[in-house]
Structure formats: structure tokens, C-alpha cells
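Changelog-linked ticket: cytidine-5'-triphosphate example.
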Amino acid sequence: MHLNGKKILLGVTGSIAAYKSAFLIRLLIKAGADVKVIMTDAAASFISPLTLSVLSKNPVYSDFSKSDGSGEWNNHVEFGIWADIMIIAPATANTLAKMANGICDNLLLATYLSARCPVYFAPAMDLDMYIHPSTTRNIQRLIEYGNHIIHPEDGELASGLVGEGRMAEPEHIVQEIYRSLNGSNDFSGKFFLVTAGPTFEAIDPVRYIGNRSSGKMGFEIAEAIANNGGEVILISGPSRLRTNHPNIRMHFVENAAEMYQLSLEHFSDVDVAILSAAVADYRPVKSSDSKIKKKDHDLILHLEATQDILASLGKIKEDQLLIGFALETDNEIPNARKKLKNKNADLIILNSLNDKGAGFDHDTNKIYFVEKDSETEFDLMQKSEVANIIVNKIKELI
Ligand code: CTP
């Protein structure tokens, strides 16, 4: 992965994850980037400016005035103009709150406010802070302003608690930067439909039949296409994920019927459809208008089949490219090939639940391309990398 000559401005704020900034800088420098670091005072309690200066091969900035006593100032506007990309990692709840509200009481925040380049932020905090409504609202607002989030990961936190809030690993952050800086225009003028996430089929006003799909794979695919200049209609079932990519038109739906309707509406406008959603195959025949009360006998739910979106698009497709997914537990390749044929798709991307780290709710995936006369197996990799492989395959097929 090369970032030769790319100018990267790294903002470091006061979280224990600041130690990861050292690794991040090393990876960026190794990839050939030119890195300048701005730290908040709180960050300096977690990692020394000297460490980051040695690794970045540049002075580390934290004050508006230069530390050499010359009375000159560190020009935040110039930093913002200099950078090809600004990344704030780790980004604390405090800094995110200030960014979301236009507060600029330190050099890092003033630089953020004046930056003209894309800004990425990698939150790092304890899980309760991360899911606090104020943090959620601040992040949402930052995304609405056009900034990009690099989602934290689930895992053990410095507090000993386990959950979401751990800063993304430096390798992952470098991948995001790489993708952002190395987009192409190969899909310029082309239109894409992507479905993502689970569907929720209502049983009554409070209960539903759903599944564990997070939507990650579909969102990654949509972003990878958009980074290559394609225009994307992204139809997602209920998911916490968001995107603010200017090339992506986002629609959220609740259930299979809504996803079917919208997909059908848009299909004739697109060149390629990639159906990665985990659509429910069955829904309750009738969802109750009021909450179903507990009785002292068994409850039998009568389910009916939903429309198969992939198969329906397969029936009406003209010269469009139609790509489906298959999640299998056994007899994987033959089953995927059956879906390819029965649903009239051009490519099935197979996940096997037997592969560790693949499928729902992981950041990684292991896929196979199943085509009419061939199949290709790939190693386990980050979903963002999988998305790039799928994008390259689409380039080959259209
Ligand atoms: N799919 C769809 N509409 C449905 C069900 C599935 O569009 N109602 C799509 C999925 O988005 C995916 C592909 O069909 O691209 C295969 O989904 P999968 O659930 O693996 O296949 P099913 O046909 O539902 O078969 P089964 O669950 O029996 O394996």
C-alpha cells in the first residue's frame, strides 16, 4: 500500500488509545506519507510529543504560538490547506463534542474548522460514553457536516469493560486513508443499486423477526463503488451504520416488502445491482396491531414467504449485471451455484459460516466468487478489502 507524497495531518487527543498513534504514524511513514501531528494538551499526558515527533520526522504542534519564543504563531489555516487529508485518531468524546459544536479552543480544533480536505475521525472512549445519546448525536452531526467516521471496534476496553469504543486498529485506519486518497473515476457515469443489512418483519408493534446482519458488507461495497466515481442507491434495512458519501443516495427500510418495492423501482435506472442484504425469507401473515399478550398455551406464528428480490430482478434484467450473496453452512459451492442459476445472477459471492471470522457481525469476511464455470476462493480479510475486490471484479465484468 503506497501513500507516496500524500500529506497527512494527524490530530491526537487525550485518550489512552493515543499510544496507537505511534503505530499509526509508523505505518503512514512506511507507506511514504508526509505526516504532521497536532496534539491537544491532554494527549501529551498519554504519549510524549517527542515520540510522535521522532516517528513523524516533523515537529509536533500543540500551541497557537511557536515554542521557540520567537512570538510567531502556528498557522492553523496553513495546516488545513497543506493537508490532503486530516485524521483525528484517537478522537475523544470531548473533542467530538467540540467539533460538532464549532468550538475551537485549541490548535487542533481551529485547524479542523479551517481544513478544506476530507476529515476522518476515529472515536476512542469507554462503551457507555460511546453509546451516550450526546455522543451519538455529535457523531451524527459530524457525519452530516461531511466528516467520515472510522468506526471503533468491539472488544476489551482500558476500563476493563467489554464493548464498542476501542479505537480502530492503525492498520484499518491506514486502509481507510488509502481508499480515500486512491479513488478512481472508473465508474463515472455508471449507476449502482446496493441492498444491505437485515430486514425486520413485524409480529406486533414491539416484536419482529430479524437477523444478525449488521449491514457492514453492503455499506463497504457502496462506499468502495462511490470512491470509484459510481452513483449508488443504497437500500438498507435497520442498521446503525450511516454514510455521507456524496455519491450515495441512502434509503432506510424496515422490512422485505419495502426493500422489494424500492429495489424494483430503482432497478431499471442502474447498470449493476449488488444484493448483499440478509432479507427475511418469511414474515408473519398478519402483524398484530396491538401487543400480543402472554397466554397459558403455545403461540403459533403463521408465516408466509416474502418476495425474493434477487430472483425478481433476475427475471426482468436486461443487460444489467446482477450480483447476489449466499450464506451457506453446508454443501456451499453447489448451493451457491444453484442460487446463481435459479435467480439468474451473473455472480454469487459466497460466505460460508464454517469459515472463522466470516459472515455476520465481523469486521472480516472470507468470500468465494461463484460463476457459471468457475469459482475463486479468497483469504479472510477486512470487509473494506473485500469490497475493493468486489469492485475490481465488477470492473472486469462490465
Ligand atoms: N435475497 C433476496 N430476497 C430474499 C431472499 C434473499 O434478494 N427474499 C437475496 C440476498 O440478498 C442474497 C441472495 O438472495 O443476495 C441469497 O440469499 P440467501 O438468504 O443466501 O438465499 P435464499 O434464497 O434465501 O436461500 P436459503 O435461505 O434457503 O439458503
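Closing comment: Example verified and attached. Residues 195, 256, 275, 277, 279, 281, 306, 308-310, 324-327, 339 surround cytidine-5'-triphosphate (CB under 6 Å). The chain is about 35% helix and 25% strand.
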